[in-house]
Amino acid sequence: MLESIDAGTRLCSHHLAEHEAVARQAVEVMTEWYDLSSAQARTQLREWASRCDASACQVAEAFVHGVYLGSPTTCPPATVRRLERLLREFTGHAEAR
After folding, report:
1. What would the 3-class secondary structure string for the chain be?
2. Residue 89 Ramachandran class (φ > 0 left, ψ -120 to 50 alpha, else beta)
3. Which of 27, 45, 53, 72 stands the most exposed, by the fewest C-beta atoms within 10 Å?
4. Dihedral, CA atoms, 20, 93, 85, 8, nearest 10 degrees?
5. 96 contacts: CB under 8 Å, gap ≥ 6
């Protein structure tokens, strides 16, 4: 799962199972919130990771913990701020095509 999300972006290799779980959660939330397919959600995570200069698993962590759950995250604060800005600009399904 994580390799498919991170194709072409940096991959966090430590704690791989945790990263896979949070990436899966992020994709599930994105499919529900933004009416995206799983493939579109994974593509969008890669795009956000690129624009945040972070790995897709860091962006997934920021999305799930920092945004969706509103809980503390281990991501750098700058990554969370960039993601929040991108989320405010995100138009959803049409943009993810």
Report:
1. CHHHHHCCCCCCCCCHHHHHHHHHHHHHHHHHHHCCCHHHHHHHHHHHHHHHCCCHHHHHHHHHHHHHCCCCCCCCHHHHHHHHHHHHHCCCCCCCC
2. alpha
3. 72
4. 50
5. 34, 36, 40, 41, 43, 44
Token look-up 């990771």 returns 49
pTM of the predicted model, to two decimals? 0.78
Residue ranges per structural domain of the chain? 2-89
Q: What is the pLDDT of residues 29-46, one digit of tens each?
A: 999 999 999 999 999 999
23, two tokens: 């990436």
